[in-house]
Amino acid sequence: MKKMMLLVLAFNSFIFSAYAQKSDSEIERKEVFKNKEIVFYQIDERTWVGNGNMMFNESMYIIEGDELAVVIDNGTKIANLDKIIASITPKNIMMVATHVHPDHTGNARSFPEVYINPADSINIPYSMPNFKGKLKYLTDGQIIDLGARQLEVVFTPAHTPGSTTFIDKASGFGFSGDSFGSGNLLLFGGTFSQLIASCEKISAIMEGNEVEFLFPGHYHGNNPETQVRLKDLITLSKDVLSGKVKGEIDPGNSFGLPLFVSDYGVKVNYNEESLK
Ligand SMILES: [Zn+2]
Predict the structure, then answer these.
(1) Do the bridges between strand 259-263 and strand 248-249 make them parallel or antiparallel, or are there none, so unpaired?
(2) What is the distance in A from the centroid of ligand 1 to the CA of 217?
(3) Mean pLDDT, 10 residues at a time, over the chain (276 residues)?
(4) The 3-state secondary structure of 204-263, one letter per residue
(5) How much distance in Å is there from the Cα of 196 to the middle of ligand 1?
(6) What is the DSSP letter of 220?
(7) How many Å apart are CA 273 and CA 276, to the nearest integer?
(8) Which residues lie near ion ligand 1 (Cβ < 5 Å)?
(9) Domains of the chain, earliest start first
């Protein structure tokens, strides 16, 4: 399975740059649904990614077990998302969020229950204003049993206070939302110290369980989070905290994060609070 996923990733990189030959790995990323708001691809036998087009390929994932399908995130604005998901998996749905931001919980109101990290409750008025369902809370280290498939919940704060990663150890991959930023991380209220701790925490889990990569919250087909990315984020964060690297003003920033640092192939946007 792990080998196959690496093949899929390698293949996805390939099709972005060249004319693709038909191969087994192509079948693993076949398009299963498309309308003007979202396209779903199958990425292995029981895993799918949906990419919305309103906020830089905002991604959601369907992870199917024998009893239950966990849906990680629900995009920005997609009509009838519940019905679209039901056309892909017949299983009952458990909706979870990697974090409470409008490009990841924008369709929460289409679902009766949404599971979040309680630390992100603070973002609900802004990100899920019309949610009338039941809010349920995840716990750090929780195992979600899908039936012959499990997801481990790992709290990875920094992008938001309640950012969360889900690890499928048996498959050798995980799902990290915007926790590690796909090379461009925004620290909304989080600190560099928090970021270092989250990177170290998830890195240890990946290493100990042969988890090869994490699917990010804005997946283009070839931008997984890797151990190398985590290491680079740790190095850059330590450089900032030690004063070795100074933040520059980001003239184009519209997220209320006026400063940025960029090195080792990663970029972090932040404000003065993040240095505490
Ligand atoms: Zn996002």
Answers:
(1) antiparallel
(2) 6
(3) 46 34 48 96 95 94 98 97 98 98 96 98 93 97 98 98 98 97 91 98 97 96 94 98 94 84 95 92
(4) HHHHHCCCCEEEECECCCCCCECHHHHHHHHHHHHHHHHCCCCCEECCCCCCCCCEEEEE
(5) 20
(6) -
(7) 6
(8) 103, 178, 217
(9) 2-275 (3.60.15.10)
6 burial (CB, 10 Å; 0-12 / 13-18 / 19+) is: middle
User: Residue 34 is encoded by which pair of tokens?
Assistant: 């498309």
* 269 C-alpha to ligand 1 centroid (Å): 14
Cβ pair 194, 158 in contact under 8 A: yes
CA of 135 to the centre of ligand 1 (A): 20
Place of tokens 């850059």: 236
Strand order in the sheet with 150-155: 143-145, 150-155, 164-168, 173-177, 213-216
- What value does the CA radius of gyration of the chain take, rounded to a whole number of Å? 18
Q: Please give the distance, rounded to the nearest whole angstrom, from the Cα atom of residue 189 to the centre of ligand 1.
A: 15
Kindly report, residue by residue over 205-242, the tens digit of the pLDDT: 999 999 999 999 999 888 999 999 999 999 999 999 99
Question: If you measure from the C-alpha of residue 131 to the centroid of ligand 1, how many angstroms do you get, rounded to a whole number?
Answer: 19
Q: Could you tell me the pTM of the whole model?
A: 0.90
Ligand 1 midpoint to CA 24 (Å): 31
Distance 207 CA to ligand 1 centre (A): 26
Please give the distance, rounded to the nearest whole angstrom, from the Cα atom of residue 101 to the centre of ligand 1.
7
| Half-sphere exposure of residue 227: CA atoms within 13 angstroms, side-chain side | 12
100 alpha carbon – ligand 1 mean position (Å): 9
Measured from the Cβ of residue 85, the count of other Cβ atoms closer than 10 Å reads: 24
Q: How far is the CA of 59 from the centre of ligand 1 (A)?
A: 8
